[in-house]
Specification:
Blueprint (H helix, E strand, L loop, with lengths): L5 H18 L5 E2 L2 E2 L18 E4 L4 E3 L4 E2 L2 H7 L5 E6 L4 H17 L3 E9 L3 H8 L5 H8 L1 H4 L8 H10 L3 E5 L2 H10 L6 H6 L8 H13 L9 H32 L2 E7 L9 H9 L3 E9 L5 E4 L5 E6 L13 E3 L6 E3 L6 H6 L6 E5 L7 H9 L6 E8 L2 E8 L10
Parallel strand pairs: 6-9, 6-10, 7-8, 7-9, 10-12
Antiparallel strand pairs: 1-2, 3-11, 4-5, 4-12, 13-14, 15-16, 16-17
Helix pairs in contact: 4-5, 8-11, 11-12
């Protein structure tokens, strides 16, 4: 990794961060192929749960303490004394977001003295969250000002009900995450490379937790690593990715504690499950700072007609979600850039993701129009694409080598089965 030029590293940083995010939870199906996830059965977490397992079924909630299914209302009642409630997610699983919404509603009914913390928003955008909760922004204004489809990129539809409920009930919402450029710097150069202002955003990193190291390494090694990153570069890459993971966890844990202290409220945290597994991630970092009781709830995808084996130490409560063959909302992955002197967007690299690849995009294509819309901003391009659903077909005009070409994006889930 260190032999690669800084500019190339910088260009690859977003890709690696997406790889890290998408790697941090169980993906039992990769384009339809079953895949075992060893990270769900590691001998980690509370010692009294090690070697003890649950067989998760869709539609059921399980208590780690009892080792048995539990009713939703009972779970909410048992969480009453928790100051922090961590709700894990697989970012593109709508059922998990629905569970998050139901838990937030039930906790609010139990005690309205509630706040919400989000991995999905970086701390520099906190004023936009405040204006949303205050009712000062329409949804379109909110998405544009918070740059949702650049800073996060997952379809807003996954989170809409939660944001609307927070605004309706005037529940304070807090950004927990660090800006991406700071995390990238930590990954590539280490915490010492940060300037003093950046160190005010990201606390010092504790990289010594051996159980957490085992968990994160297990997750990374389960993924298919590109050949150019193997060999002598592999250890350096894993070290950098682990630094980034800890930086996320330290930052989000610290900001969750700040939110609790500033408001005097219980804080519900929404983040990827990989930041919470075995209570070793941001939940552990927050506990180190606050020593306040907390509860973690994590969803587990279960393939049809099966049960999934997980360690009882994985979280305080686990629930089964029937695995979908494709996400609720389609996502077009296309690398775009701005070129000086050109208002239009330019395709930065040949696509490898099936939907964009099937449409025929090529590196260097200049985007002229999406249907009848001219788009000059990456966020607006992704925002427009997020408005389409499975079964839709979208016409895109591009300029290629001086010739106007019309491409057709088919949001066909069958395309996801085609390996690159």
């Amino acid at each position: 990794m260190r032999k690669i030029s800084y500019q190339r590293e910088k260009a690859n940083s977003c890709l690696l961060l997406v790889f890290l995010l998408s790697s941090l939870f169980c993906l039992p199906l990769i384009y339809g192929q079953a895949k075992e996830d060893r990270s769900l059965t590691l001998p980690l977490g509370p010692k009294n749960y090690r070697g003890k397992y649950l067989l998760i079924e869709p539609g059921k909630i399980y208590s780690a303490s009892s080792g048995r299914p539990v009713e939703f209302e009972r779970m909410i009642k048992e969480m009453k004394k928790a100051r922090f409630i961590y709700l894990g997610e697989k970012h593109d699983n709508l059922e998990m977001h629905e569970m998050q919404f139901q838990v937030i509603k039930a906790l609010y009914q139990q005690d309205p003295n509630l706040a919400i913390g989000l991995e999905q928003v970086t701390v520099d955008l906190q004023p936009v969250l405040d204006r949303w909760v205050a009712g000062e922004l329409s949804e379109e204004e909110f998405l544009r000002e918070i740059k949702w489809y650049v800073t996060w990129s997952f379809n807003y539809g996954y989170y809409r009900k939660i944001f609307e409920f927070a605004r309706e009930k005037k529940i304070p919402v807090f950004a927990l995450n660090a800006p991406r450029n700071i995390i990238s710097k930590i990954r590539m150069q280490g915490y010492e490379a940060l300037n003093e202002e950046e160190k005010k955003i990201v606390p010092p990193l504790d990289l010594t937790n051996e159980e957490h190291q085992l968990l994160i390494r297990t997750i990374f090694e389960a993924e298919e690593i590109p050949p150019q990153m193997k060999g002598a570069n592999l250890e350096a890459m894993l070290e950098g990715l682990y630094r980034a993971q800890v930086a996320w966890d330290e930052t989000m844990g610290a900001n969750a504690v700040k939110a609790a202290e500033a408001t005097g409220r219980r804080v519900v945290v929404l983040a990827g499950s990989g930041h919470m597994l075995y209570n070793l991630g941001l939940n552990f970092r927050a506990w180190q700072k606050s020593r306040q009781p907390f509860v973690t709830i994590i969803g587990v995808e279960v393939p049809e007609k099966t049960r999934t084996k997980v360690s009882r130490g994985l979280a305080n409560y686990l629930y089964g979600v029937k695995e979908r063959p494709f996400p609720a909302y389609p996502a077009l992955s296309l690398s775009l850039k701005k070129v000086e002197g050109l208002a239009n967007l330019v395709v930065a690299a040949n696509p490898t993701e099936p939907l964009a690849k099937n449409a025929g995009f090529q590196k260097g294509d200049i985007i002229l129009k999406i249907e009848e819309n001219s788009v000059e901003d990456v966020h607006d391009f992704r925002w427009l694409m997020a408005g389409y659903n499975w079964g839709d077909e979208v016409k895109v005009k591009v300029l290629r080598s001086g010739e106007v070409i019309q491409l057709s994006i088919r949001f066909d889930p069958e395309l996801l089965k085609k390996k690159n």
